[in-house]
């Protein structure tokens, strides 16, 4: 199962999610920024409801893989080609 489904994220939340909103120590993702589409453009949004700003708990599987993903996002994939 993918990250959006496991975290209950809407696509506009996932697209606008920043690594700074991921708190691995507390095992949580803070959903505070949103985006909507306007034609082919992404525009900042206030979310779909008053409950849009929220904190989502991360499960063991995501806590296990996200540090590697964060490193790849920040520094690129540093592994040598096989």
What does this molecule look like?
This protein is α+β, with helices and mostly antiparallel strands and 82 residues long. The chain has one domain (3-75). It has helices at residues 3-7, 11-16, 60-75, and strands at residues 22-23, 28-31, 34-38, 41-45, 54-57. The chain has a three-stranded antiparallel beta sheet with strand order 1-2-5, with no helix packed on it. The chain has a two-stranded antiparallel sheet with strand order 3-4. A hairpin with a 4-residue loop joins strand 1 and strand 2. The longest helix has 16 residues, at 60-75. Residues 78-82 have low confidence and may be disordered.
Q: Please, what is the average pLDDT?
A: 75
Rounded to an integer in angstroms, the radius of gyration calculated over CA atoms is: 14 Å
Order of helices and strands: HHEEEEEH
Q: What is the general shape?
A: globular
Distance between the termini: 27 Å
- Protein structure class: alpha+beta
Low-confidence stretches: 78-82
Number of DSSP-assigned strands? 5
Instruction: Give the count of helical stretches.
Output: 3
Q: Which strand-content bin applies to the residues?
A: 15-25%
What is the count of structural domains?
1
Main sheet specs = 3 strands, antiparallel
- Kindly report the spatial arrangement of strands forming the biggest sheet: 1-2-5
Fraction of helical residues: 25-40%
